[in-house]
TrEMBL record:
Residue span, ABC transmembrane type-1 domain: 55-336
Protein's UniProt name: ABC transporter ATP-binding protein
UniProt GO cellular component terms: plasma membrane
Coiled-coil regions listed in the entry: none
Keyword Transport tagged: yes
Broad class of the protein's primary localization: membrane
Subcellular location: Cell membrane
Pfam families (alphabetical): ABC_membrane
Origin: domain of life: Bacteria
Keywords linked to the UniProt accession: ATP-binding, Cell membrane, Membrane, Nucleotide-binding, Transmembrane, Transmembrane helix, Transport
Length: 388
């Protein structure tokens, strides 16, 4: 065989040994369509299996929300008592307010403990299913996908789901209940001032809608590139003798740097879009405080509300904006977890290895000869180490 043919065969062998060096499609950047609804339904199914723990967490969240909503009304009563607008005793009111705040703090602590345990149980089951699936995958799947990408789904993607369950979901549940309870009591105190305060919600919804789409897009891209980067590193380490033997260090370095630069850009875009949500929501919340101070003072002068109600409204406005801010901030984490869950479920949905067939009976008088045979798991892509 001629020298050029040897070099060409060596290059083909190197590309099969290190798929990250010339075949980006092997990393699965477009291996399945994005489907938010189906992914969420499958995630919910894991929560259904932990009904008792989910119910306990929801109970703690509801109790803590009630304490958080009731405490500012006690503060309003205490201020009105000091101002002489109520004739009740001050010390029992202060003692009750202190007890409510202590119960609220305790519920927050218990909520964190339950959510942490819930996340570990759900993610533990998900890891078991994923590892069991890897043992039953057909060889062609592992031949067509980077080992590092498969490992990334087992580690990084599952860990993102764990972080979301333990941190983001409790904030989401408690935030939603806090918004409902705060809106109800603000309308009960003074519906005019409440409606003026809710005007800032429109700005919040618009800001969230604009940024949410970008966060979802960039977070999904980041997860894909992270799997590609892990695949390049893993295959570089396992195929290091081949890289050195054929002097492909520069090509491998260039491949890694290109993927790392793309991952850096996607990570910056995701973090920027997620990070600006908090400051934007804080700015909108401050606008709400200005509205309450201006119109609350006017309503107090006209006798529509008391000074204590203004104080309570300021606290309630903060309680109303805080969960919105938290939901906006954890939205990036939710999108990252959903993107990771899609990648995990894509592996779980792969068909198992076909183990059908009959054992071959041995015969001492027959022989099997292979001539001009090649082999591949994917059409047109010869398997590593197999040549005509």
């Amino acid at each position: 065989m001629s020298e050029p043919n040897n070099l060409q065969n060596n290059k083909s062998l190197l590309e099969r040994t290190l798929p990250g060096m010339g075949h980006h499609e092997r990393f699965g950047l477009t291996e399945h369509a994005e489907n938010l609804g189906a992914t969420l339904r499958r995630l919910v199914a894991y929560f259904v299996r932990e009904k008792a723990m989910v119910a306990a967490m929801l109970g703690v969240v509801v109790f803590g929300t009630l304490c958080g909503v009731f405490a500012p009304s006690l503060q309003s009563s205490a201020i009105d008592i000091i101002a002489g607008e109520q004739g009740s005793s001050l010390w029992p009111t202060l003692a009750l307010m202190l007890a409510v705040y202590l119960l609220y703090s305790g519920s927050q602590l218990l909520q964190g403990l339950i959510s942490a345990k819930l996340s570990q149980r759900i993610v533990g089951r998900l890891r078991e299913e994923l590892f069991g699936k890897l043992l039953d995958l057909p060889v062609r799947y592992l031949d067509a996908h980077s080992h590092g990408d498969v490992m990334s789904r087992m580690t990084n993607d599952v860990e993102n789901i764990s972080t979301t369950v333990s941190q983001s979901l409790p904030s989401l549940f408690s935030g939603a209940l806090t918004i409902v309870g705060t809106v109800a009591i603000m309308l009960w105190y003074c519906w005019q001032l409440a409606l003026l305060s809710f005007a800032t919600v429109i700005l919040t919804v618009l800001a969230t809608k604009i940024l949410s789409g970008k966060v979802r897009k960039f977070s999904r891209e980041r997860q894909m590139l992270l799997g590609q980067l892990n695949g390049t590193v893993e295959e570089m380490v396992s195929g290091y003798p081949t890289v050195v033997a054929y002097n492909h260090q520069d090509i491998t370095t260039q491949e890694f740097c290109q993927t790392a630069d793309s991952l850096t850009k996607a990570g910056i875009k995701t973090d920027v879009c997620s990070g600006v949500m908090g400051p934007i929501m804080n700015c909108i919340g401050n606008i709400g405080f200005v509205i309450i101070a201006a119109f609350g003072g006017y309503f107090s002068i006209t006798g529509l509300i008391s000074v204590g109600v203004i104080s309570a409204f300021i606290v309630y406005a903060k309680q109303f904006s805080r969960p919105i801010n938290e939901i906006a901030q954890v939205y990036g984490q939710l999108q990252t977890a959903i993107a990771g869950a899609e990648r995990v479920f894509a592996v779980l949905d792969e068909a198992d290895e076909d183990k059908s067939g009959q054992p071959l009976e041995e015969s001492p008088t027959e022989t099997v000869t292979f001539q001009h045979v090649d082999f591949s798991y994917q059409p047109g892509t010869p398997s590593s180490g197999i040549s005509p």
